[in-house]
């Protein structure tokens, strides 16, 4: 069945006879794995920001950022239900699986979006609230509705949405943003293309079937491998930047340099091994390592921020 036929079928109300999914189905709409990364990076942004928030207000801010991220995920799944239904990685999501109707997902996403922005603005500050609103709009409209289906640079530009949370966390404390918070953004922004392109190489057939113009589909695997290596080389020094700018310790500088070197080495493997099982294994290794890389960088910054507050 072609994608066009699938899309026609998605408009048939009979597909959605079930609806009113379980609590677990609605949690799945929030993309909890993505949300966990958003929560963590936003929290690190809050911890590194100069100044303090009352613990209750800080908790409210973090909850609003998390809910806003979940709302973005729900809106993404609402709009992408047609292509999700033809990709093996996403075919069991609540909407294509018939657990939740598109209308329910849209209402859920919009309610959470409006609620999270209003509460963050009213109880924390309106700059952070407006930043959260812009992030939701950027992910749901700019990336999901426009870039994802129109350009192989979808991940490069759209990745900004996933890189904003530490800046929102910083803004929740300070009411503004700074060079330090922008560096946190830049780390995630430059990490996103090699991370997702590694997945796209591994799942190229899915994207071809769905008609999504991911880089391996449009420009080919060789070009994608070149781009992965270039972005990885650019990412490595950016990961060290918190030390270079003076708000991380020499230990962070050494550790981040080692993590960045490993990222470049694994990317070089992806560039070098281009055929057969060896190439697939190299791609999967990079994808898995990239997750640990980002977590460890932000974990190091978090631990140092805690130590700095304790030691005064």
Automatic annotation (TrEMBL):
The reaction(s) this protein catalyses:
heme b + (2E,6E)-farnesyl diphosphate + H2O = Fe(II)-heme o + diphosphate
Molecular function GO labels: protoheme IX farnesyltransferase activity
Query: What is the topology of this protein in the membrane according to its UniProt annotation?
Result: Multi-pass membrane protein
List the keywords (alphabetical).
Answer: Cell membrane, Heme biosynthesis, Membrane, Transferase, Transmembrane, Transmembrane helix
In terms of PROSITE patterns, this protein maps to: UBIA (PS00943)
Q: Which pathway is it part of?
A: Porphyrin-containing compound metabolism; heme O biosynthesis; heme O from protoheme: step 1/1
In terms of superkingdom, the source organism counts as Bacteria
Task: From the Swiss-Prot or TrEMBL record, state where the protein is found.
Answer: Cell membrane
Q: Where are the transmembrane segments?
A: 34-50, 56-79, 100-120, 126-147, 154-173, 179-202, 228-245, 251-268, 289-311
Pfam families attached to this UniProt entry: UbiA (PF01040)
One GO BP on record is: heme O biosynthetic process
Q: What is its EC number?
A: 2.5.1.141
| Signal peptide per UniProt | none
Please give the InterPro entries that the UniProt record associates with this protein. Answer: Protohaem_IX_farnesylTrfase (IPR006369), UbiA_prenyltransferase (IPR000537), UbiA_prenylTrfase_CS (IPR030470), UbiA_sf (IPR044878)
Q: Name one GO cellular component term.
A: plasma membrane
What other facts are recorded?
Carbon 2 of the heme B porphyrin ring is defined according to the Fischer nomenclature.
Q: Which HAMAP family match?
A: CyoE_CtaB (MF_00154)
Q: Which family does it belong to?
A: Belongs to the UbiA prenyltransferase family. Protoheme IX farnesyltransferase subfamily.
Biological function? Converts heme B (protoheme IX) to heme O by substitution of the vinyl group on carbon 2 of heme B porphyrin ring with a hydroxyethyl farnesyl side group.
UniProt-recorded name of the protein: Protoheme IX farnesyltransferase
């Amino acid at each position: 069945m072609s994608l066009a036929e699938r899309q026609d079928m998605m408009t048939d109300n009979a597909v959605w006879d079930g609806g009113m999914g379980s609590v677990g189905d609605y949690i799945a709409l929030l993309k909890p794995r993505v949300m966990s990364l958003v929560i963590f990076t936003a929290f690190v942004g809050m911890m590194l920001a100069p100044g303090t928030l009352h613990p209750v207000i800080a908790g409210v801010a973090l909850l609003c950022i998390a809910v806003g991220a979940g709302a973005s995920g729900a809106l993404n799944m609402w709009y992408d239900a047609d292509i999700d239904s033809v990709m093996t990685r996403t075919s069991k999501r609540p909407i294509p699986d018939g657990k939740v109707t598109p209308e329910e997902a849209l209402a859920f996403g919009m309610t959470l979006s409006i609620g999270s922005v209003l509460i963050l603005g009213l109880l924390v500050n309106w700059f952070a609230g407006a930043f959260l609103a812009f992030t939701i709009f950027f992910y749901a409209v700019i990336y999901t509705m426009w870039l994802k289906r129109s350009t192989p640079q979808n991940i490069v530009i759209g990745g900004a949405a996933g890189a904003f949370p530490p800046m929102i966390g910083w803004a929740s404390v300070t009411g503004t943003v700074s060079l330090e918070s922008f560096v946190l953004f830049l780390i995630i922004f430059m990490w996103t293309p090699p991370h997702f392109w590694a997945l796209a190489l591994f799942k190229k057939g899915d994207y071809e079937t769905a008609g999504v113009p991911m880089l391996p589909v449009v420009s080919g695997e060789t070009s994608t491998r070149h781009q992965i290596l270039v972005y990885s080389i650019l990412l490595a020094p950016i990961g060290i930047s918190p030390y270079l700018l003076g708000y991380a310790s020499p230990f962070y500088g050494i550790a981040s340099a080692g993590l960045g070197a490993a990222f470049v080495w694994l990317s070089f493997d992806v560039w070098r091994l281009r055929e057969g099982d060896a190439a697939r294994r190299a791609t999967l290794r990079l994808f898995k390592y990239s997750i640990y890389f980002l977590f460890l960088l932000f974990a190091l910054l978090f631990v140092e921020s805690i130590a700095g507050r304790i030691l005064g």
